[in-house]
Amino acid sequence: MQAFEVNFDGLVGPTHNYAGLSVGNVASLKNADQASSPKQGALQGLAKMKALSDMGLKQAVLPPLERPDVYVLRQLGFTGSDAEVIKQAAEQAPAVYAATCSASSMWTANACTVSPSADAADGKVHFTAANLSNKFHRSIESPTTSRVLSAIFADEKYFAHHQPLPLGDHFGDEGAANHTRFCNAYNSAGVEFFVFGKYAFDNNKPAPVKYPARQTYEASQAIARLHQLNPNKTVYAQQHPDVIDAGVFHNDVISVGNQDCLFYHENAFLNTEQVLNDLQTAFGDQQLHFVKVPAEAVSVEDAVNSYLFNSQLVTLSPGHMAIIAPGECQENDNVRQYLEAVVAQDNPIKEVKIYDVKQSMRNGGGPACLRQRVVLNESEIAAANQSVFITDELYATLSAWVEKHYRDSLTEKDLADPQLLVESRTALDELTKILNLGSVYPFQL
Ligand SMILES: NCCC[C@H](NC(=O)CCC(=O)O)C(=O)O
C-alpha cells in the first residue's frame, strides 16, 4: 500500500506575541517586546500550507492552543473570575503571565514525535506528545496537544498514543525537532534518527555550558522503546555542544533529512563520522545522500540567522526534492549563494522555494518548526479525521476565519486585556467545528 508524508502545520494562534521566553533561542530573545501580528502570522502560515498542497503534497492543519492559560494561572494561586485572574497575574507576575499567553503551540514540530506504522513492531502509527520540559511556557502545551492528536487520529486499530514522558530535565523531550526518519519509499521500514543535546544521567559526558540542552539521550531512548522501534534501525547522535551554545537550540536548526537524504551542517554533530556510518549501516545497501554544508560556505552563525536548515526537505517526484526555505535565506549572501550552488550539485535537492514566515521567524521558528511530519498509508489517511486536510475550500474557510477573529497587532499591554481571552475562545470554538474536532479545549470540557 502506498504511503505519504503528510505535513501537519500549526495554525498561528490569536495571541501570537514576542515575549523573549526562550533562553538559547537567539531570535526569541532579540525580538522580545516587539509588536507582533497574529493575523499576518496566521495568514503567512496558511499561505505556506496552501502552496505545499498546490505542489501535490499532502497537507493538513493542527489547531492552536487556548491562551492565556487561565487554568495554569489558577494552579499558581490567582483567583476570581477569568478576567480577575488575568488582571492579577498581569499586574503581579507579568513574566509568568506572558508565559501563559505564548502561542508557541504553532511550532508543531515540537508537538510530538511520530513513528510510522512501517517502523513499529505492532504495525500502528505511534504518537508521543512532547513534554517540552525545558521551557515553562511550552511545558503547559502537552495536555491539550494530546487531546487534539487523539481527536484527529482516533481509530485505535491504526493509531497508538502515549503520554508525554515524565516532566523534569532528565527526560526533556522536544518532539520531532530532534527526530528525522530515513527511508526508501515512505511505505518501507525506515531508520529513525534521534538527536539529543546531552546525557541526563551521566555528568561526565560532553554538554553545552552556555545554553540548555533541551533533549536528553534518555528521553530519545524512551520514545524509541514506546514506539516499538527496531534497535537495528534506530540511530542516536549527540548534537555538538558548541552549536547549542551558538544558538542551535533544536537539531532542526542545523540539519534536516528526508527519505535517503541528510542535509546537514558540518558542525552539527559530535563524532560526525561515526554518526554517518551508523546511519548508513542501519539504512542498508542503498546509499544515503549526505549533503554536507561546510562552515567555510555557511557559518553556524549564518545558519542560525537565516534558518537555512529549518527548511522543509520535500519530495516532489522520485529523486527530486525541494527545499522549502524562509525568506531570510535570501537576505543572507552566503546562504543565498550556497543555495544557488547546491541545486547544481549531484544530489537529490533540485529546487529551492522561498516562503515568508517572518512572524514565526522572529520567535525562532522557520518552515520546519511549523510542521509535524506524519507518514501515513492510504488506510491510515482514510481512518484519520478528514476535516483537517487542506483543500482549496478549507484554505478559504480558515483564511476568512483568521480575518474575522484575529488582531492585526499585539503588544505586551494588549495581552493583559481580558477581552483577548473572550476573542480567542470564540475563535477556537468556531475552529473546532470547522475542523470537526469535538471538545478539545479546557473551556469546552
Ligand atoms: N521549533 C521552534 C520553536 C521556537 C520556540 N520559540 C518560542 O517559544 C519563543 C516564544 C517567545 O519568546 O515569545 C522555542 O524556543 O521553543
TrEMBL record:
The keyword Flavoprotein does not apply. It comes from the Bacteria. Substrate binds at residues 19-28, 110, 137-138, 214, 252, 363. It catalyses: N(2)-succinyl-L-arginine + 2 H2O + 2 H(+) = N(2)-succinyl-L-ornithine + 2 NH4(+) + CO2. Pfam families: AstB. One of its GO terms (biological process) is L-arginine catabolic process to L-glutamate. InterPro entries: AstB_sf (IPR037031), SuccinylArg_d-Hdrlase_AstB (IPR007079). SUPFAM superfamilies: Pentein. The active site is at E174, H250, C369 (nucleophile). Its EC number is 3.5.3.23. Coiled coil: none annotated. One of its GO terms (molecular function) is N-succinylarginine dihydrolase activity. Pathway: Amino-acid degradation; L-arginine degradation via AST pathway; L-glutamate and succinate from L-arginine: step 2/5. Keywords: Arginine metabolism, Hydrolase. Catalyzes the hydrolysis of N(2)-succinylarginine into N(2)-succinylornithine, ammonia and CO(2). Homodimer. Belongs to the succinylarginine dihydrolase family. This is N-succinylarginine dihydrolase. It comes from Aliikangiella coralliicola. The lineage of its organism: Bacteria, Pseudomonadati, Pseudomonadota, Gammaproteobacteria, Oceanospirillales.
